[in-house]
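Run log, item B.
One chain of 230 residues. Sequence copied directly from the ordering sheet:
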Amino acid sequence: AAVRGGGGRRKSDYLVEGRPVGREEYTQRACDPRASAVVEACAGSGKTWLLVGRIVRALLAGSQPGEILAITFTRRAAQEMRARLMDDLMQLALAGDEAIAAWLRARGMSDAQARASIEPARGLYERVATARVPISMETFHGWFWHLVERAPLGAGVPYAPALLDSIDRLRTDAWLHFTARLLRPEHAAVRAAWERLLDDVGEPSARRLLMQFLNRRAEWWCFAAGDEPA
């Protein structure tokens, strides 16, 4: 199911396969581990809340911690997701029956399902914390690096490769390549656009804007991929 959500609470803010729905049905569809779901929503609208709720629902449905993989773009987001999950599991471990049932109902369970899951939910913290194979919450590059480590020959990587954590040098190199390419005749249109930006905001601000765009490039790629030709 394709599920779209906004930051508000009006029914029109939530769409399931193009159909306006209420928040309750939206949450139920997004958190249901029995069905695939794609959630499209703006920043700060609660996607991490939904994802963590879906992970808890998957665990309650019988998935093992080592069978769950959550991938995000940045280490900060991965750390936030892991901390949110463990904090929620700790709350479930310490909460009373009514609080646990309410927590599960808020993540799309019916009242009967929530009450039947109280004791399993209370034991999730210990189950996840002591799992021999833990839940994987990684960045894209971190996850692919794990795959390369397990099959280096099949991946065709050089001997003893290293994952670059610092990007400052790479940004400096990219900046030098960018400015050098502006001098080439085939990049005249880009050079003209860059010069207009310099005239409008000045060199320091223009460079800062370009670096900010670089930091958000993944979001821009996703946005641009959704555009349709007019």
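Observations after the first pass:
- The mean pLDDT is 83.
- The radius of gyration is 23 Å.
Flagged for discussion on Thursday.
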